[in-house]
Amino acid sequence: MLGGVLKTISRIAVVAAAGLFISGFNSQITFAADFGGDCCADLEERVAELEATTVRKRSRKLSMTISGRVNYALIHWDDGGASDGTRDDDTIVSYPSSAPKLQFDGRARISQDWEAGYRFSIELLDNARGLNWGQFDRPTEAAIDELEAYWFIRNEQLGAISVGLRGQTYSGAAKVDVSGKTGIAGQVDPRLFGGGIRLRTTDGVLTDVRLGDAYMVDDGDDGAGERNGIRYDSPSFAGFILSADWVNDDDDFDVFGVRLTYAGQIGDFKIADAVAYFQEDGVKPTDVFTTETSGVLGSLGVMHVPTGLFVNAGGGETDYDVDQFFDDDNANFWYVTAGIQQNWFAVGPTTIFGQYYSSEDNDVDGASNSEYDAIYWGGGVTQNIAAASLDLYLAFRQYETDVLVNGLKTEDVQVFLAGGVINF
Q: What is the pTM for the complete model shown?
């Protein structure tokens, strides 16, 4: 009958426009005319098939947002002059720093002051990630890896408790970016731009020491991963948020961390900062030696809004102790990033910056000096295209280390990037 035809058309429009079929759609339209027959049986069957394959939420009150990023770049590096028949430079297409990611966020309002929700995200991981690629590590078939998976409950006045797999509280505390747009090109961690590149001695011979091994400070990014635990985040008080977490990911260690974050504006100056402390205790019962690692780290960013001039600076110190017989020297690092951000081209802000990073008292297996310093310097530019949520970037970085292998110093390494990251 006509009512059936109109009902079918309505259901098709809902499915096509929203991609979701809301079960129990019972709108009834009664008409006097009845044309009889089942003229739309085939159409009804196909709509039912489509409904069966659409994504559905268990609860109508639980909202769901899908987001993510895709990041790829043309990467070139030069590790110094070769004398052993190997190539001393190469160019690849890969993703520096961070891999493509897909994220699902959901939340539901319980009452005026309470809500609950979840986050589930996955990342494309393989040996092409910035921490690993080098002369002998190239892009291969990628694996989908669980990045975060946790649920939370939050009160407007009391804060939020989350339980599951997520980033630790001290992650990124030393890497505040007040500009918000230095992005991939300006990420601080020295190991995420070609950490797998093998260092070459001054006589041109490749060693087994990787670039990522030459910067051994747990600096709050590579040092902190996504691990299973429980976390508390306070409400914002005058721009300040206090966070704390406890992690017991496996039988190797447990970790406690605490962090204080601030974001706000005072007059013409936008300010962002964070400070954190963490303590990691080795608890593996089969180890001969037990370890304890603790660290303090922080950063501050200030931008003069009218001119777009900004500076980010941070640092930290990590204390490595190996049972009662050893007391290793503290490894430490600091860096500064300075630049300007202006909307010169109308499509989105342009961010130009320079960067210097220094770490001290590093240690690495295979080096003939047990402690050494390592630095890098460089710069970059990021052009945001707001309409497409796209950041195009260019970056250069030169790594210089004091590592000695067989009594010979290692060569400097240069890395060049040209790429883009789109967020959706």
A: 0.81
SS (H, E, C) 110-127: CCCCEEEEEEEEEEEECC
Give the residue among 246, 216, 398 at the shortest CA–CA distance from 316: 216
- Counting the structural domains of the chain, the total is 2
Q: Is residue 58 part of a domain?
A: no
Host domain of residue 29: 2-53
Between 30 and 150, the higher pLDDT residue: 150
Nearest to 397 by CA among 380, 409, 382: 380
Residue with tokens 């640092």: 315
Calpha distance 13→7 (Å, rounded): 10
Indicate whether 26 pLDDT > 50: no
Pair 202, 128 in one domain? yes
pLDDT band at 283 (very low <50, low <70, confident <90, very high): low
Note whether 414 and 318 are same-domain residues. yes
Residue 129 confidence (pLDDT): 62
Same domain, residue pair 97 and 41: no
Distance CA 57, CA 49 (A): 18
